[in-house]
Structures are given as C-alpha cells and as structure tokens.
Amino acid sequence: MGSDQQVVKSNHIIEASYRLSVAEQRVILSAISQVRRDQPVTDAVLYSVTAAEIAHLCGTDPKTAYRDLQSAAERLQTRRVTLHLEPDGITIRSKRKRVTVWVQTVDYIDHEGRIEMRFGKDILPYLTGLQREFTRYALSDVAKMTSAYGIRLYELLAQWPDGHREVSLADLRTWLQLQDRYPSIKDLKRRVLDPAVAQINEHSPLMLTCSQRKTGRKVTHLIFDYVLKKRLNVPTKTTAKRKIGTLTDADIAQKARPGETWEAARTRLKQVPLDLPQ
Description:
Structural class: alpha+beta
Strand order of the largest sheet: 2-6-5
Mean pLDDT: 86
Number of helices: 10
CATH topology of the largest domain: Arc Repressor Mutant, subunit A
Low-confidence stretches: 234-245, 273-278
C-alpha cells in the first residue's frame, strides 16, 4: 500500500450522511484507493487490506492495527450511508434519499491479519468510472488522523480546492449524522470542530482556520479558510504581532464578507495566516 495512493469519490459520497469510526474509515479509504478507474469494476471484486499495511501507513502500533482491523471487520457490514440525490433529468426524476451499504461482504482472515471485502453494488457507481463531480486526494493526507470528524472535514475541504468554503450548520449536522448531539455551538466546537481543525492542521497538507457567521443572533454557518502548507511563508512572531496589532477598523470593513458580523470578521482576520487570500 503506497503512500501515493489516491482516494477518489463522487461528490455524492463526500456530502452523504454517514458515521464511521476512524478504524472503519481507514479500511474503507484504503479499499477505495485500490479501485480501478480505467476499466469497469463489478461488485464481485475483492479488496484486501492488512493490519501491517494500516500500521505502516498510519504510523500505529501493529498490535493496535490488528485489533482495529478485526473490530472494523465485525461492524462494517452493518454500516449504512445515505446519499442525497438531486434530479438529473434522466435516471432521477425527483429529489430523493438513497440508503445503501458500504460493503456487502467482509471476511477477516485471522492468522494473516487481513480483511477481504466487496463493495456494495449500489455504492460502486460513486467510486469508479467518474468523469465529473468527484473529489480526489492522497490517502496519506488523512492516514494519520485520529479524529473521524477530521477526516470527513478534510474531504469537504478537498471538494473545494480554492481555499474557502462556507457550510451551513444544518448541512454539517446532516453529513456527520450528529442529529441532536451537541446542540450548542460551544459544545459542537469543543467536541467536533476544534479537534477536527487541529487534526487537519497537524496531519494534512492544509493549514485551516474556522470562523462563524450569524443569521440574526444565531450562528448558522461555518466559514473555512485554508491554504497548502507548502505555499506558506511563515512570518516571524514579531512581524505577525505587528501586522495583527495594526489591523484597523477600515481593514476589517474592507475584508469582511457579506453577512459576516464585525466580531466574526475580526476573529477570522486575526487567525488566518498572513499570506492567505482574504
């Protein structure tokens, strides 16, 4: 399993509603990176993922990788994914939700520490033969993350590579299957957003900041700004302090986004790396 393997998903899956543990996501993503995209693929094809490969790619202890692989094998077959499909004028006449499974069979070969799995027939069209509306990123970008939410958030950012994405809280809750969990924005930040942002900044190629937008008095949207780390010229602490300290009201007014509160704009502009497009 090479570190340059690519994960390619239809955007329908990127914005699907599902929950997988970190171990389950690692298995699913490792298998997706093996899907051939240059020829037809059927649901009869077996994909193999070993604990040794997972341990090497993710930098985890081999014993932990074996345990996690066995746990994933026991639970993956029951995992569901809800796709939100829009009318395409051909096969889908009206908006609908499609509930399907990630995999149809999973075998755990104990003495080899290996999984063999088949993707579900209905999920394969969203993994192979994609010509448009898909997202691609390197498996190594997320391999070392230990936050399931961090992996999902990274995919949502990879879907919009221009360095800026605004997401409604309602959509994010649906995509992550949060339902009524963490109803306050304070709890959502502490349990979901802050750990996910920290994981992305530590393990992925991106440097990310997150701010909020209110509708009335209620936070309704999250604003993500990000840039490739290799494009950053990290300023000295003295330079950074001087630039932040001289951020004037006129600067904020000029750089604020439509509908963004004064407080949110000030917070975002202070957090965003100095050479990020604002």
